[in-house]
Design brief:
mainly alpha
């Protein structure tokens, strides 16, 4: 009996899986650059001014409500909210690195608890500053910030619940969802700059269109990443190579927009104030 050996052919499913994995890594690399820039800006701008006691200099960068003379509680909450955002962002990035999860599980668990705690604190202080301190650009933006905060609290609860019950797969899913909504503030800035650099010219947007665009950016800053995450999860679980490829292309498109927003944010929003 003879056995013929034919050249190995790559199946559509394995090709789709390869493209999806490559697109995911590129998305993460772009997010890593952008969020690292966010961390460095917070430390370089707010961190240095806070450490040196130049609290009024927080207002050197245009803010809704930064330092307010005589408002000790509000200023304290603002400082904690902004500075802890840098720690939470770094913590979230560490949680997404597979090698750390595998080679340093203890660090992963400890860092995960730090991320969860800070996410809850930032959600609560964000809601407090919005409604109690009155730091809001509009009613729509206040609702968007509040919904973002509520989702962070809900997703944190589910993440903890599944971790306690040792449902690791469910825990990881909710932790990814938490990462997306916890990064809402960062995504919002990236979305603004992507729209400013691409959207305005492409759609020849007039000022009359801004009242429509603003809510899309405000709510979309965390709803769109959540949707992309769910599509990614569905594609990974699917046996269809076509679906994997289609979602990979969508992620690449989103990554291109995100990269544009990251570039604009770093160059126009952060570097001028450092």
């Amino acid at each position: 009996m003879s056995v013929s050996i034919s050249p190995t052919r790559t199946s559509p499913q394995s090709s789709g899986a390869f493209f999806l994995k490559a697109a995911t890594r590129l998305w993460f690399a772009t997010a890593l650059v952008g969020q690292t820039g966010f961390i460095l800006f917070i430390l370089g701008f707010y961190g240095t001014r806070t450490i040196t006691g130049q609290f009024s200099a927080w207002n050197d960068k245009p803010l809704l409500t930064g330092h307010v003379e005589g408002d000790f509680a509000g200023n304290l909450v603002f400082a904690a909210h902004v500075l802890l955002a840098a720690v939470m962002t770094l913590s979230g990035l560490i949680q997404l690195i597979p090698n750390i999860r595998k080679s340093a599980p203890r660090l992963h668990r400890i860092n995960g608890r730090i991320f969860l705690l800070l996410a809850v604190i930032l959600a609560m202080t964000g809601i407090w500053m919005t409604w109690i301190r009155g730091s809001q650009a509009s009613f729509d933006s206040a609702i968007a910030v509040s919904l973002n905060g509520v989702l962070i609290l809900v997703f944190s609860a589910f993440t903890i619940r599944h971790a306690v019950r040792r449902r690791i797969r469910d825990h990881e899913i909710w932790a990814l969802r938490l990462f997306m909504v916890a990064a809402g503030v960062w995504f919002f800035r990236v979305f603004i700059m992507a729209w400013s650099l691409i959207g305005r010219g492409m759609f020849k947007a007039s000022p009359d269109l801004q009242p429509v665009i603003d809510p899309v950016l405000e709510f979309g800053s965390y709803m769109i990443p959540l949707l992309l995450l769910e599509l990614w999860r569905a594609a990974r679980a699917s046996r269809s190579g076509m679906m994997k490829t289609a979602v990979a292309l969508l992620i690449l498109f989103a990554t291109g927009l995100m990269a544009t927003g990251v570039f604009g944010t770093i160059k126009m929003m952060w570097l001028p104030y450092l």
